[in-house]
Amino acid sequence: MTKSIPEIFATNVFNDEVMKARLPKNIYKALMKTIKSGAPLDMTTADFVANTIKDWAIEKGATHYTHWFQPLTGSTAEKHDSFINTTPNGMAIMEFSGKALVKGEPDASSFPSGGLRQTSTARGYTAWDPTSYCFVKEGSLYIPTVFVSYTGEILDKKTPLLRSMDALSRTAVSFLRLFGNNVVTRVTSTVGAEQEYFLIDKKMYDQREDLILTDRTLFGAKPPKGQELDDQYFGNLKPRIAAYMADLDEELWKLGIYSKTKHNEVAPAQHEMAPIFTTSNLGTDQNELAMEIMKKVALRHGLVCLLHEKPFEGVNGSGKHNNWSMAADDGQNLLDPGDTPMENLQFLTILCALIKGVDEYADLMRISAASAGNDHRLGADEAPPAIISMFLGEELDAVLKAIEEDGVYKTETKNFEIGVNALPSFPKDSTDRNRTSPFAFTGNRFEFRMVGSSDNIACPNALLNTIVAEELSWFTEKLTPYKDSENFEQEVKKLLKEVLKKHRRVIFNGDGYSPEWVKEAERRGLPNYASTVDCLPHYTDDKNMRIFRKFNIYTQAELTARTEVLLETYSKTIRIEAKTMIEMASRKLLPATLNYVHSVCDSIAVKNQIGMTCKSEEKIAAKLNELADKFYDSIERLKNQLKAACEVSVIKDQAVYFHDYVLAEMDIMRSISDEIESEMPCDVWPIPNYTSMIYNV
Ligand code: ADP
Ligand code: MG
């Protein structure tokens, strides 16, 4: 990199600084009013903004523009139109109108809608979301948009997030008024998404249909070395990885993404990128963009970036730690406890609102991280269990205990002494970390650790925002009668005590990976939805429907449709995996096995002729022959199960069938294949093995 970071940072982003510099004052002001308070944008302003963006984008090398949106497919969508228009004398000019900036009309019929939209009413609209920045990439101007159907139902992941941000802001502002804050006008949810990923050599990847078609290995015996030496986490970066990360950083910085931290993760070939947090809407767009760039930059280095939650069995999978908080426009982080949390009643009330919310809507939090991929990871001693609980740490626990017992808690600042004079001493954090908790307080934010590495973070954040909006409005309603009373503080504490008594069960500071916790959670009555098919049907439970409607996040039809799309996606994912397994097994792995058995038998025949003994050959041939028979039977069973699954017509029942029968048979088939692989010579096994994939970069 020849230029400094500030020189390249956000060079391809039409951000506040560019707007201020390029737009006339009155236009800039009108646009800001739309961005900050949601005021409608008039067409004259839109035309002006469009023209300015176009000129800027052309300077950056753009010839096209695209409305960029996040349908329910799991990736982003874009359709490029060039800026050109005709002139009377047969020449071309570059044009871009306010209308084209604000509204697009992609044919919606090829995007999942969960039955909301018949093909006959295929019209869909994309609408500019001015709260996220436009940017230039690969010769096009990207305009972040939301996506709705002709009849007004939402068809994307961004709209519920934006709606939830509004709901959270409204309720949080009223809540803050209770505590005497009359200056705050907007509260914004914030997110910093730590992104985990794997890098493997493209040459290995190209030889494996499972990776190409499903992003994960469906076969593969465990390598002799796993994670037992703990030598990968924070390990030094190999030159090829370091070069990739440097290149990635530069690309992300150009797009205005504050890539901050990079390191090796726990599993071999696993790494992480963490950006500095920002608002949830921008953070979501940037995470989607980051995932795309990560994949593209990898190809330039002859690598493939895998974002699947569990690309390799037996080694840790990848998640996305979703760090979440709320920022008020007076500069406060609403989850900052301050130096003496016991005296910070506003913070304690917000904390109790979260405790109540997480307990009451644990199912929604679980759902927000539910996918076929993430099912392999949650509860597998490498990621949080499927049981939702909260970790608060020693100090906050003590403070809450004091509230419950009408006691007091005094914060003591302790210094951390290392015992070497030359080293500086520093204040000790008031709490340790807990890696096993799904929802952990980390000093001034909560870290939601269940989210899968390939997930769009709009959904978890929309749900968190909605839950917290509901709880803050509940507290506001309960406490408003005491607002100006001298008993306010007492009444707040009384309410917190009640809430804690009822909802303390969701707090858990122990080892979330231990089998005891599963039993303990059951005793506490906490839900434990092991798989996607267990939790998804609860999306539309009455209590959940009620808050979505109350805050105008989803209509009943929208939520029902969304649940269907998620269940269908689940079934489709497993169907593709099963078909890939059948294809690989019957056309590559089983033939290779039979060929090898054949060659061993040939060798036995030859040796027998000259009177040599063939003990080992006979054993190997017999063993592999038996395994091959089992393998064949399993392939046939999987074919039958797959056929039966496809015949189930009720969406939910079909997903359950895929889970209970198809996935179960896939597991059996894999274990047979993995056993065969460990008995076969490397050079005749037709696909790269785990060692060469995860240890060779
Ligand atoms: P760790 O691995 O210890 O959890 P990292 O530094 O890797 O820490 O990641 C922490 C993430 O939390 C970063 O993305 C950071 O920007 C984010 N973060 C910090 N403060 C907030 C906040 N107030 N709201 C949301 N995210 C935050
Ligand atoms: Mg973290």
**DSSP summary: helix tally:** 23
Structural Rg: 28 Å
The amount of beta strand, in percent, is 5-15%
Q: What sort of overall outline do the alpha carbons produce when their principal axes are compared?
A: globular
What name does the CATH topology of the largest domain carry?
A: Creatine Kinase, Chain A, domain 2
**CATH-assigned homologous superfamily of the largest domain:** Glutamine synthetase/guanido kinase, catalytic domain
CATH class label of the largest domain: Alpha Beta
Task: Please give the domain count.
Answer: 3
Largest sheet: 9 strands, mixed
Ligands bound to this protein structure: adenosine-5'-diphosphate, magnesium ion
**Uncertain segments:** none
Name of the CATH architecture of the largest domain:
2-Layer Sandwich
Helix content: 40-55%
Find the count of extended strands (DSSP E, 2+ residues): 20
Distance between the termini: 23 Å
Topology:
Layout: H1 5-8, E1 13-14, H2 16-22, H3 25-37, H4 43-59, E2 64-69, E3 77-82, E4 84-86, E5 92-94, H5 98-102, E6 103-104, E7 124-128, E8 134-137, E9 140-149, H6 158-178, E10 187-201, H7 202-205, H8 209-214, H9 239-254, E11 259-264, E12 270-275, E13 278-279, H10 280-300, E14 303-306, E15 320-328, H11 345-360, H12 362-367, H13 372-375, E16 390-391, H14 394-404, E17 415-416, E18 426-427, E19 439-441, E20 446-448, H15 458-479, H16 488-503, H17 515-524, H18 532-535, H19 542-550, H20 556-609, H21 615-647, H22 651-679, H23 690-694
Parallel strand pairs: 2-9, 16-19
Antiparallel strand pairs: 1-8, 2-3, 4-5, 6-7, 7-9, 8-9, 10-12, 10-13, 10-14, 10-15, 11-12, 15-20, 17-18, 19-20
The structure holds adenosine-5'-diphosphate (ADP) and magnesium ion (MG).
